[in-house]
Design a protein that fits this description.
alpha+beta, single chain, Multidrug-efflux Transporter 1 Regulator Bmrr, Chain A, elongated, ten-stranded antiparallel sheet, Arc Repressor Mutant, subunit A
Length: about 300
C-alpha cells in the first residue's frame, strides 16, 4: 500500500514546482461525482459499478470509500435518497402513488409501498393523508467547502489504530504491522481509511523528510472497540484542513521529489488564498488508489487555524 520511500512533509516556504507532479481529484471530489450521478436522476437504473466508473475508481475501492466518507453503503444511499425524494413528492404534489413510485425507480406500486414502509414505518398513502414526520436523507455535499478553488475539510474526531515503524525502513515496518493486523481484524472494522505522517524517536509528529519514524493510522468504528491488548488505539482530534490530491511514480522519481513539490504547491495555495496554518502544523498523507496503474497517489492534509 505504501512504497518504501522517504515521506515528504509540509514546509513553511514555497518550493520550486519543476518536479513532475500530477494533479488529481481528492477522494472527496471523486465520491461527489458518484453522488452527483445519483442526484441527476433518482429514477435511473444505477449500479455501483457505473457509479464507480464515474468516480474513476475500481469497484473495490468504491465500496470502501463511499461508506467511509458518506456513512452509507452505495445501495443504501441510493434507496434512501429515492424514498426521501418520494416522500417530498407525496407531501407536496398531486401525482398518483404509482407515478411517484416509477419516478423513484420502482416498477410497481407494491414494491414501492414495501420499501417506503420499511424506511418510514408508514405506507405512502398513510404518509400522504396524515401530518406524519419522515426522517429524510438530504443530498450529500462533500465539496461544499471549496473556496477560491481550494478545498478545505472539517474532519471529525476519529478513532484510529496506530502502527509505528522506526529506521531503518520505518514505513515498511509500519506497513507490515498494519497488514498483519488487518488480516486479523479487517472484517471487524469494515470500510476504513489509512493516514500517515512522520514521527520522531519519541513518537511525536515530525517535519524532517529524512524521518526517524513513520506512523500509520487506520480508522476504526467505535462499535468495533475494544481490540486485543496488542492493539494501540488513539484519537485523531477534529480539525479543519486544506486538502489537495497528488499522484506520481517512484519508478521515474525514486526520491519522491514530486511529493515534496506537492507540499510546496499546497503551501502556495495557503499563502495565495490568505489562509492561516494552525500553530501545530498538523499534517497527514492519505494513501489512495492511483489513477494510473503503477503510480502512487495521496491526498495531502495541512491543518488550518
Amino acid at each position: 500500500m505504501f512504497p518504501r520511500r522517504k515521506f515528504a512533509v509540509p514546509i513553511k516556504t514555497g518550493l520550486s514546482l519543476s518536479h513532475t507532479i500530477v494533479s488529481v481529484l481528492t477522494i472527496y471530489e471523486q465520491i461527489q461525482q458518484a453522488v452527483d450521478l445519483v442526484e441527476a436522476d433518482l429514477s435511473q437504473d444505477l449500479t455501483a459499478g457505473a457509479a464507480a466508473r464515474t468516480a474513476g475508481m475500481s469497484l473495490r475501492s468504491f465500496h470502501r470509500y463511499f461508506p467511509a466518507l458518506t456513512g452509507y453503503k452505495f445501495g443504501e444511499y441510493l434507496r434512501k435518497r429515492r424514498l426521501s425524494a418520494a416522500a417530498g413528492e407525496l407531501r407536496a404534489g398531486q401525482a398518483s402513488i404509482l407515478a411517484v413510485a416509477i419516478q423513484s425507480g420502482y416498477d410497481s406500486h407494491e414494491a414501492f409501498t414495501r420499501a417506503f414502509k420499511s424506511e418510514f414505518e408508514v405506507t405512502p398513502s398513510e404518509f400522504r393523508s396524515g401530518d406524519l414526520p419522515a426522517a429524510r436523507v438530504r443530498p450529500i455535499d462533500l465539496v461544499g467547502e471549496v473556496h477560491m478553488g481550494v478545498l478545505t475539510k472539517s474532519l471529525p474526531e476519529m478513532k484510529v489504530v496506530v502502527f509505528d515503524g522506526f529506521a531503518p525502513d520505518p514505513e515498511w515496518k509500519a506497513i507490515q504491522q498494519m497488514e498483519a493486523w488487518l488480516e486479523r481484524h479487517g472484517e471487524e472494522i469494515g470500510p476504513h481509511r489509512v493516514f500517515g505522517h512522520n514521527i520522531d524517536e519519541d513518537g511525536r509528529l515530525a517535519f524532517d523528510p529524512v524521518n526517524v519514524g513513520y506512523r500509520i493510522l487506520v480508522t476504526v468504528p467505535e462499535t468495533a472497540l475494544p481490540f486485543d491488548d496488542e492493539t494501540t488505539v488513539a484519537t485523531i482530534e477534529a480539525g479543519t484542513f486544506v486538502v489537495t490530491g497528488i499522484e506520481g511514480s517512484f519508478e521515474e522519481d525514486p526520491s519522491g521529489s514530486w511529493i515534496t513539490a506537492g507540499w510546496g504547491r499546497l503551501n502556495e495555495m495557503v499563502k495565495r488564498n490568505d489562509l492561516h496554518v494552525h500553530p501545530s502544523r498538523r499534517w497527514f498523507e492519505e494513501v489512495l488508489e492511483p489513477v494510473e496503474p503503477g503510480n502512487t497517489r495521496f491526498d495531502l492534509y495541512l491543518e488550518l487555524a
